[in-house]
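FORM 7B: Structural annotation worksheet

SECTION A. Query
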Amino acid sequence: MTWIALVAFVSLASPVIEVPKGDSITIARLQYEGGGDWYANPSSLPNLLAAIRERTGIPVARREVNLRPLDPALRDYPYLYLTGHGDVRFSPAEREALRNYLLAGGFLHADDNYGLD
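SECTION B. Predicted structure
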């Protein structure tokens, strides 16, 4: 019983990713530095959004949003999508922002975009 109370307290005290109040969830594509092409494979996220809608019935937006890790709106998006080729680099402040996002319940989907199994 003590563990249940502790978990309940921690979950109430922790910052939480805001789930959209509208009628759909928007997946945000994460922009980054380092020479990698964060914008690679432009059809991947629209295809993912369509598959989620068709296969699960979960209401997702038809368009993506592009965000950087330090964007204050980051917490408004419970699902981040990261893709590209080459180096993915984040500054210390960006790493901390992503860490906090994930600790608050955010989800990061990373796709290496090479098509290899």
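SECTION C. Observations
The helical segments are 2-13, 44-56, 92-103. The beta strands are 27-30, 65-67, 79-83, 107-111.

SECTION D. Sign-off
Analyst initials: ____
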